Amino acid sequence: MKRIAIKYFNNKTINRNISSQSKWKGVVGLEIHAQINTSSKLFSGASTSFVGHVNNHVSLFDASIPGTLPVLNKRCVEYGILTSLALNCRINPVSLFDRKHYFYADLPAGYQITQQRKPLARNGIFHFEVFKSGNNPPLERCSRIHQIQLEQDSGKSIHDEQRQRSLVDLNRAGIPLMEIVFEPDLSNGEEAAALVQELMLVLTLLGTCNCKMEEGSLRVDANVSVHKPDTPLGTRSEIKNIGSIRAVAKAIDFEIDRQISVLESGKTVANETRSWNAETNSTVPMRDKEMKQDYRFMPEPNLPPLHIELTKEESSSNSIVSAPRLKKTLPELPAEMRIRLRSYKLTAQDVFTLVNVSSLRLLFERMMTRKPSRSATKVAHLITVELLAFINREEITLDQCDDKLADRLGEIIDLLQERKINLVYARNLIQEIIDGNESNPIQIVENNNWYQIVDETELKKICVDCIENNSDIIIKLRKKKNEKTKDRLVQNLMDNIFKLTEGKADLKKTKVILKEVLSQL
Question: How far apart are CA 154 and CA 132, in angstroms?
Answer without folding.
Answer: 38
